[in-house]
Amino acid sequence: MVKEEQLMEEEEKCNLEYEYEYEEKKNRKCKNIIEEIAEKLKSEVEEEGKVEAAKDIRKLVRKSSSSGKTRCRFAAAGVIPPLVDMLQCSSSSLIAREAALLALLNLASRNERNKIRIVASGAIPPLVELLKFQNGNLKELATAAILTLSAAATNKPTIAASGVAPLLVQILSSGTVQGRVDSVTALHNLSTSKEDPKLVLDARAVFPLMNLLKDCKKYSKFAEKTTTLLEILSNSEEGRGAITNADGGILTLVETVEDGSLASTEHAVGALLSLCQSSRDKYRELILKEGAIPGLLRLTAEGTPQAQERARTLLDLLRDSPPENRFSSSTLERIVYDFAAQVDGTDKAAETAKRLLQDMVHRSMELSMSRLQLRASPCTPSKVQSL
User: What count of Cα atoms within 13 Å lies in the side-chain half-sphere of residue 179?
Assistant: First the structure.
């Protein structure tokens, strides 16, 4: 029995040694191939050879079982600067630029250090130029590259300072579906930068963003990014004007407050609040007309802490009474809680109060729907004659 166990241990040891030797041979082979491709890319004079090397980089990264290591090895072999040179060289053909761009995209994917290396090597200016091209495929690849590189916090100030924002806004209006999605995500990445320069968004972004928000699910991650950008735009007079003038702009924000995720409702109510705080007289009726009250009431009980506070502040601004006589949402919640505590005791007060508030929201929504239906009903002949 002991001898049998010893034989099994020796066999297992042999297998491990074999696997180690196999892995070592595989790594050496991969390393040699990477060095050959890198040397070819750096030393080749003819464009055709450089294009072939760039394609080999992409192919090897995609096929490698350990793509993370392969990306690091290629970067260590020095392929990033010559690939960036292919992007920015005025004599490079469109084929060469596309091959270099695809190789860089594969090297940057899921690799923070490579993202930073690519930007440090000067990739942003040529990418900005590619966004101006008429060639749709190159423009879309450049958008994807800006999106990928902007995911690294270190890169955000450099990209924001490059003047890329107006070009991404253009793609929001005229790009493919994928191009528009990538543009929104890239702009969202840049908007989260904590360093200067900050992203400056043109109010012309409002109309395509509103159209995208109308068409997507309000609780999706994409809606969260879109509403983040709309909230930023609501902080300028031009942005507020564009939101108001956009077809169904305020209604779309109200619908997001009602149906969105925790994040998208927070940004949507933030945009509405920004409108009302800038000019209560100008925006109050416009927001009320779209039936905002039910969603805001629900948000005071179910949103994030910031969304709840924003919803309460907006509800106070939307009420008819003057500021000094206004009945705040927090006061209402306190009254309901005190009543629930008297009925069910302090242990169950919070649960009872929440149920009572939800019931109030439900009734308010029914009343709001009735008003909306009444407002939407066609005029009868007698009404027309009486006008």
Answer: 21
The pLDDT tens digits of the residues spanning 13-34 come to 555 555 555 556 667 778 899 9
pLDDT band of residue 370 (cuts 50, 70, 90) is low
Average pLDDT (75-96) is 91
CB proximity list for 300: less than 8 A, separation 6 or greater: 308, 311, 312, 315, 329, 333, 357
**Which tens digit of pLDDT belongs to each residue from 3-12?**
566 656 665 6
Q: How far apart are CA 33 and CA 297, in angstroms?
A: 63
| DSSP state letters, 344-378 | H-HHHHHHHHHHHHHHHHHHHHHHHHHHHHHHHSP
Token pair, residue 376, equals 């939407």
What value, to the nearest 5°, has the Cα angle with vertex 105 and ends 59 and 165? 160
Q: What is the pTM (predicted TM-score) of this model?
A: 0.78
Name the nearest CA neighbour of 312 among 350, 274, 352, 273: 273
**How far is it, in rounded angstroms, from Cα 306 to Cα 129?**
40
Q: Give φ, ψ of 98 to 5 degrees.
A: -65, -40
Helical H segments across 44-194, by residue range:
47-63, 67-76, 80-88, 94-108, 112-120, 124-130, 136-149, 156-160, 165-174, 177-191
pLDDT over 70 at 384, yes or no: no
Report the percentage of the chain scoring pLDDT > 70: 78
Whole-Å CA distances, 38 to 52, 56, 61, 80: 11, 10, 13, 9
